[in-house]
Design a protein that fits this description.
This protein is mainly alpha-helical. The protein contains 2 helices and no strands. The chain is elongated and about 40 Å long. The structure holds heme C.
Length: 53
């Protein structure tokens, strides 16, 4: 559940940054979101990190 909760948290930050028209904020949240994506995949879906492997 930790990854799902992290996903919700980063999503809420993305909404806040978007509503504030904070371009750098949106960019930074996007980077964090990618880290959550790959973090979960590295635990539960390792094959998604190695396309074609
Ligand atoms: C809570 C865990 C979790 C999070 C967070 C997560 N994923 Fe995934 N993702 C998975 C799992 C598990 C699979 C494998 C599902 C399967 O094979 O049926 C998957 C599969 C995928 C695939 C398909 C890959 C393929 O080779 O078919 C894509 C694309 C993907 N995720 C994108 C994302 C993106 C983009 C994010 C972030 C916005 C994200 N995922 C966040 C768990 C997660």
């Amino acid at each position: 559940m930790a990854y799902a909760q992290a996903m919700v948290a980063v999503g809420q930050r993305a909404i806040e940054a978007a509503e504030a028209r904070d371009e750098m904020g949106v960019f930074d949240v996007g980077a964090d979101m990618y880290a959550v994506c790959t973090g979960c995949h590295s635990t539960y879906a390792l094959e998604t990190l190695r396309p074609g492997a």
